[in-house]
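For the sake of clarity, the format in which proteins appear in this thesis is described at this point. Each number in the token line that follows is a code from a learned vocabulary of backbone shapes. One such record is shown here in full, so that the layout can be seen directly:
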Amino acid sequence: MIRRGLTGGSFKPLTEEAIAKIHQTAMRVIEEVGFEVNSETALQLFEKAGALVDQEKHRVRLPREKVMELIQMAPSEVRLCGQDEKHDVLLGGQRVYAGTGGTALYVYDPQTGQKQPASLNNLKYIAKLVHGLDNIHLFMLATYPNELPVEQVDVNRFFAGLDNTTKHIMGGIYTFDGVKQVIRMAEIAAGSAERLRQRPIISMITCSISPLRVDKQYGDLVLTIAKSGIPLVCPAEPLCAATSPVTLAGNLVIQTVDSLTGVMLAQIAQPGTPVIFGSVATNTDPRDLKYLSGSIEMGLLNAAGAQMAQFYRLPFYATGGMTDSKVLDAQSGYESALTSLLCALAGANFIHDAAGLMEFALTTCYEKYVVDNEILGMVMRAVEGIEVNEDTLAFDLIKEVGPGGNFVSSKHTRHFLRSEHYQPSLSDRDSREEWEANGGKTTWERAAEKVKEIIGNHDWSLPSATRQQVLSEIPGLVD
């Protein structure tokens, strides 16, 4: 049973009072402190929109009434479409989906214990894996092809996705030509420019730079993508004690301001732009202030970020499911599970990085995608919760069976057994004797077998005519 788009929200790390205080503080920061905008075009647009602009310092301040006016221009729901409609997702409210993340520089092999620089072929294999893993709902481009010049990275990354899975493709972008070429490629894959806008099979990511800064390159990219009509994600990545205050509440203030800055800029550029409020917020290691990706605080911050997104009625891109472990071990499992679970129970719309990433998000691993797919199946079952009605309370059955009886052969059991209980595809539930008879395989060894099975049976690529048109029309593609 595939669970997706279920309603979360049972976990609330922030009270209503706390949400209001974070909001008020964020508005004070925008009004009194402001943020730096290093894109000249974006600076001019903010000024035309009524912001107070210090041209010398590139500092922008807005009254809170204007901030809320701009936020309310953004759609409260954003549909991200797959090439197959069954993979469409509707971000907004408290509906929960999970997907991959990036952009990892290495790929880890648990059999050798070594990692190697990620290549374009690695990205293609990951896309094939994601295509066959039901609990991974979106494909965010997961690795950086180290062998390619930056001018060829955008088109080849998106082509690797579009040509190997029918799930929605999301990714960061590196060049302005890349934006144009990727959009043209997606128009061909979708069937036309108009159909791509109606059913966006791709979306793009541009990041604010914490604390309180819009980079020139990313600012200009926000404007370019917003005007294209393609859905846009505007995440920020404040780090406790480094690029935000050490407290989680202070981090949430910076994260809220930084992401709202991207949301506002997109609406100034093109009112109604489908934009997604986003967080990659986390903490740092107190010993040396390095970035952490598997801490419980990251889960709390992104769960709270989901509440702030719900307060602003914006779709939310959260971060969870990663680990700081360098191998597939117990740490890898519990860190990935806990952060994904907190985000999902809080109603985070799209939990990115929820599959495949390890070692501070530097490295990805084929087998970990399979392990995380299992974790996400359990997470989504937790989001579903416990349904209480006359059928599930089963009073009539309890009365019929009575003291000392059993429920094994009842029609009620047959009806609810598979839908009520998560059925694992990877976990071992055999007795020790059965497990040993089947080879005594570890979790990652069983995952490795599934990797081979999924990639070996993969049967999707773009239709031949569409594929040929893309290859002939888009420069720089590596087939």
Notes: The longest strand covers residues 232-236. The mean pLDDT is 97. The CA atoms of residues 76 and 314 lie 5 Å apart.
